[in-house]
């Protein structure tokens, strides 16, 4: 089980770190790849050091799930990066892989037409920016096919646990949730 999370300056700290930590607690190999080399400053001023720069990652298409945290301007950097577009197209075109996006990050998917015909969620104030053919659902986490979406910082645990459940099973997700004292997900 391997997860790739893409980090850009201005990403939302909670959406990145909670997901990485939760998945690692569940035994998932998580690689945090920065769009640029070196530490980055997240949306609330927290400095995060990615594991590797995206350009240095040999097999970015060889993970079980590709995860996009939200946050501004991090999401805009993801949207504008051709490497991210290529990865999203590769992951969504492969039925054995998943894509997970939270908060503002579903707007990146919408910009590529990848929400068309699917149910999804995002930060409620941004749902109008995802008007490309998908159906917005007001829920903490929405799963449709191989796409998992979530609403924001406060739903980060539920989002991470859903990803973990899909990768490692419900028992593993339940154990991690119980160990962290997180309620039902």
Describe this structure in words.
There is one protein chain. By secondary structure, the protein is of the alpha/beta class. It has one domain (2-108, 152-179): 3-Layer(aba) Sandwich (Rossmann fold). 32% of the residues lie in helices and 21% in strands. The strands form 3 sheets. The protein has a 7-stranded mixed sheet with strand order 5-2-1-6-7-11-10, with helices on both faces. A two-stranded antiparallel sheet has the order 3-4. The model has no long low-confidence stretch (mean pLDDT 95).
Task: Produce the secondary structure layout.
Blueprint: E1 2-7, H1 13-25, E2 29-34, E3 40-41, E4 47-48, E5 52-53, E6 65-68, H2 74-80, H3 82-92, E7 98-102, H4 106-111, E8 119-120, E9 135-136, E10 141-144, E11 147-150, H5 156-168, H6 170-179
Helix pairs in contact: 1-5, 5-6
Structural key phrases:
185 residues; alpha/beta; Rossmann fold; 11 strands
Concise account of the structure shown:
The chain has 185 residues and is of the alpha/beta class. It contains 6 helices and 11 strands.
- Category by helix and strand content: alpha/beta
Q: Could you say what the CATH architecture is?
A: 3-Layer(aba) Sandwich
Radius of gyration: 15 Å
- State the name of the first-level CATH class: Alpha Beta
CATH fold node name: Rossmann fold
> What is the percentage of strand-forming residues?
15-25%
> What global shape is seen?
globular
Q: What share of the residues lie within helices?
A: 25-40%
Biggest beta sheet summary: 7 strands, mixed
**Distance between the ends:** 20 Å
* Run of helices and strands: EHEEEEEHHEHEEEEHH
Average pLDDT figure? 95
* Number of spatially distinct domains: 1
Question: CATH H-level name... which superfamily?
Answer: Class I glutamine amidotransferase (GATase) domain
The number of E-state strands comes to 11
What is the number of helices? 6
Unreliable segments of 5+ consecutive residues: none
Strand line-up of the largest beta sheet: 5-2-1-6-7-11-10
């Amino acid at each position: 089980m391997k997860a790739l999370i893409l980090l850009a300056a201005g990403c939302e700290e909670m959406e990145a770190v909670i997901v990485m930590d939760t998945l690692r607690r569940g035994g998932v190999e998580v690689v945090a790849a920065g769009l640029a080399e070196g530490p980055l400053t997240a949306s609330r001023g927290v400095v995060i050091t990615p594991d590797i720069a995206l350009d240095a990652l040999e097999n970015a298409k060889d993970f079980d799930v590709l995860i996009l945290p939200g946050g501004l301007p991090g999401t805009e950097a993801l949207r504008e990066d051709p490497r991210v577009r290529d990865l999203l197209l590769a992951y969504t075109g492969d039925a054995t892989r998943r894509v997970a996006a939270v908060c503002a990050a579903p707007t990146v998917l919408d910009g590529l037409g990848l929400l068309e015909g699917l149910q999804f969620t995002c930060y409620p104030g941004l749902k109008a920016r995802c008007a490309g053919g998908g159906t917005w659902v007001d829920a903490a986490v929405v799963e449709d096919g191989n796409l998992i979406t979530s609403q924001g910082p406060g739903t980060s645990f539920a989002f991470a646990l859903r990803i973990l459940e899909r990768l490692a099973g419900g028992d593993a997700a339940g154990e991690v949730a119980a160990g962290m004292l997180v309620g039902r997900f």
